[in-house]
Amino acid sequence: MTRIRRGYIARRRRTKISLFVSTFRGAHSKLTRTTIQQRMRALVSADRDRGRQKRNFRHLWITRINAVIRENRKQLLLNRKILAQIAISNKNCLYIISNEIIK
Question: Model-level pTM?
Answer without folding.
Answer: 0.58
